[in-house]
Amino acid sequence: MKLHSPLRLLAALSLAGASFFAQAASTDVTVAYQTTVDPAKVAQADGAYEKATGAKINWRKFDNGSDIIAAIASGDVQIGYLGSSPLTAAITRKVPVETFLIATQIGGAEALVARDGSGINSPQDLIGKKVAVPFVSTGHYSLLAALKHWNIDPSKVQILNLAPPAIVAAWKRGDIDATYVWDPALGAAKENGKVLITSGELAKFGAPTFDAWIVRKDFAAKHPEIVKGFAKVTLDAYADYRKDPQAWLANQSNVDKVVKLSGAKPADIPVLLQGNVYPLAADQVVLLGAPTTKALTDTAAFLKEQGKVDAVLPDYAPSVNASFITQ
């Protein structure tokens, strides 16, 4: 039977939509996540990302950003969550990625903690002590920035490169005196330790840090709808939390899902969520421009000064892309 023009158009649109979802469904995406505490962990647990993108997502847990960058550079991972310091190092080393979402502006959720009985009562007491931190992480950047703020030569501090699980083990054995880390390792350190400074406090001294969602440029060019869907789910989760944080926390299901994916203690979830800022869509449009480009440039200059990268790129703007939010 011959279809009238409106029916033909409707059929064509239906076929186009089916074609897109068939293509997305046939797309396997490996997403690297970390054990940070954030509202979007609920969406991850609920399978909301798969529903919105139509893609088959393989979630892989990582302990630090440098390992995520290595996986993205190799092509094993297409989308990843990491801090501004490893991100800056990766962009500077020409890893083909772009930032499509600011996951969080870090506040009290990362901190420098001195172990009770270590003899560290003030910043100057860090001299000669063993301080553990994952190298080239936001914690590492913040530790070096804190030492610079306190006029302490980093070479006079025994800075050890340990992943968060190793930090927890070393802390419990008493092998280290202090650590700059995030949860769940941060929570373990706080049990018998004293916070010397947080990343939120360091931001006021001119050393802000943030976490970001990034994507391989080739994957984003081929599957922009998946990246847009991924961003929307994240922002919807943030909006749900920020609409009424107390009501969100009162829902035990939300807390349980965050605990399961982060490893943090239930009692710590409220404080950790309050320790960061989760930018909404309108904020993202502003942040994914000059502010992020400047933050990356400043971080690169600091990393070069510390000998962590060889040079600073003339422009970091090509690695920041707000189009997945604005479209």
UniProtKB/TrEMBL annotation:
Subcellular location: Periplasm
Cytoplasm is among the record's keywords: no
Family that this chain belongs to: Belongs to the bacterial solute-binding protein SsuA/TauA family.
InterPro entries: ABC_Gly_betaine_transp_sub-bd (IPR007210), Peri-bd_TauA (IPR010068), Solute-binding_3/MltF_N (IPR001638)
Major subcellular location class: periplasm
Protein name as catalogued: Taurine ABC transporter substrate-binding protein
Pfam (any one): OpuAC
Source superkingdom: Bacteria
Keyword Metal-binding found: no
Domain Solute-binding protein family 3/N-terminal residue range list: 28-245
Alphabetical keyword list: Signal
UniProt signal peptide: 1-24
